[in-house]
Design goal:
Helix content is 33%, strand content 13%. By secondary structure, the protein is α+β, with helices and mostly antiparallel strands. The protein folds into 2 domains: 39 residues, no CATH class; 166 residues, Muramoyl-pentapeptide Carboxypeptidase, domain 2 (2-Layer Sandwich). A hairpin with a 4-residue loop joins strand 2 and strand 3.
Length: 275
C-alpha cells in the first residue's frame, strides 16, 4: 500500500459517511501496519546543496543522501557536522559542506549590489572537498597543472591551471569568448594577470587560497579593488559586467560579489552556478 492509498483509505474511514463499525479489527490493524511500514519507506529530502555538488562534479561524485556525499572511490563526506549557531568567522575557519553551500550566488547583473554584510557565497570553502579533487599537497596539484595561453592577442600570458574537472578547458573558453565578443575597450582589464597557481594561504589566515589548487585567476590588478588594499569596507568595483558574465557562463564565480570584495578574483565553482 503506498502513501496515497493509505491516506485515501484513512479519509474514507472518517469522512465518507461510513460507520467504523463496518470495518473489522483486522481491517484497522492492516491499515495501522501499512502506516507504520510507510514511515520506514519515506526518505528525507536530499539538500539542494548536495544535489548541486553531485551535478557539478560528475567525475568524482557518485551520489548523495540526506546527510552525506558519496565519492566514486568510496570516500564519504558529511553534509552537516551538527554544530549549530556558527558565526561567519567560524564558518570560514571550520566549515562543513552545508556552511559552504548555504549562501546562494546570483549570476549576472541583477544581483543585490553592494553585497550585504558577510554575504559572500563561495568564500566559505570546505577544504577537504577541494583537496580531494585537485590535490592534497603542492606536489599533487602540480601533477594536474597544464598551461593555457590566456588572452593571446592582448596578454599572451602562459598560465598554469588545474586540468581536473575540465577547469583548464573552461578557462580557455573564457579567454576565447572574451577575445571573440568583446571590444578593445575591455583589453586593459585583461592585458596582464595577477596570477593563477600559487600554493599559499589566504593572507592573515590558515586557510588555503583557491590559487593553491590552480582553480583561480586574478585579472589586471591595476583596475581591481580588494577590501584589504582599500583599507575599508566600502564596496568598490571597476570590472565591467560583460567580463564577469562570460566568466560565470563557464563556471567561475566573481569575488566582487562578496562583502569582503576581491574584484580581480575569479574561481572555478560550478556547484554555485548549476541550475
Amino acid at each position: 500500500m503506498n502513501l496515497i492509498v493509505y491516506l485515501l483509505t484513512l479519509f474514507s474511514l472518517v469522512s465518507c459517511g461510513e460507520n467504523k463499525s463496518n470495518y473489522t479489527n483486522n481491517d484497522v490493524n492492516n491499515i495501522t501496519l501499512s502506516r507504520d511500514s510507510l514511515q520506514g519507506e519515506v526518505k528525507k529530502a536530499i539538500p539542494d546543496g548536495l544535489l548541486r555538488l553531485v551535478k557539478a562534479y560528475p567525475d568524482f561524485i557518485d551520489r548523495a543522501d540526506e546527510n552525506n556525499l558519496y565519492f566514486k572511490d568510496g570516500t564519504v563526506m558529511q553534509w552537516d557536522d551538527g554544530i549549530a549557531g556558527k558565526t561567519h568567522d567560524e564558518m570560514l575557519d571550520s566549515p562543513d559542506l552545508e556552511d559552504m553551500m548555504h549562501q546562494k550566488y546570483v549570476k549576472g547583473a541583477n544581483w543585490d549590489s553592494p553585497p550585504a554584510e558577510n554575504f559572500e557565497p563561495g568564500r566559505i570553502r570546505y577544504e577537504p572537498f577541494f583537496k580531494k579533487m585537485y590535490g592534497n599537497t603542492s606536489s599533487e596539484v602540480k601533477k594536474n597543472l597544464v598551461t593555457i595561453n590566456w588572452m593571446p592577442s592582448v596578454c599572451g600570458c602562459n598560465v598554469q591551471v588545474n586540468s581536473v574537472n575540465g577547469m583548464a578547458e573552461k578557462l580557455q573558453a573564457v579567454s576565447d569568448e572574451i577575445e571573440s565578443t568583446l571590444g578593445a575597450e575591455f583589453d586593459k582589464y585583461l592585458s596582464r594577470t595577477g596570477g593563477t597557481f600559487n600554493w599559499r594561504n589566504i593572507a592573515g589566515t590558515n586557510r588555503l587560497s583557491t590559487h593553491a589548487f590552480g582553480t583561480s585567476i586574478d585579472i589586471n590588478t591595476n583596475y581591481s579593488n580588494y577590501w584589504q588594499w582599500d583599507g575599508d569596507m566600502v564596496w568598490k568595483n571597476r570590472i565591467p559586467m560583460e567580463i564577469i558574465e562570460i566568466f560565470e557562463k563557464h563556471g567561475f564565480i566573481w569575488g566582487g560579489k562578496w562583502y569582503h570584495y576581491d574584484t580581480m578574483h575569479f574561481e572555478y565553482r560550478p556547484e554555485l552556478l548549476v541550475e
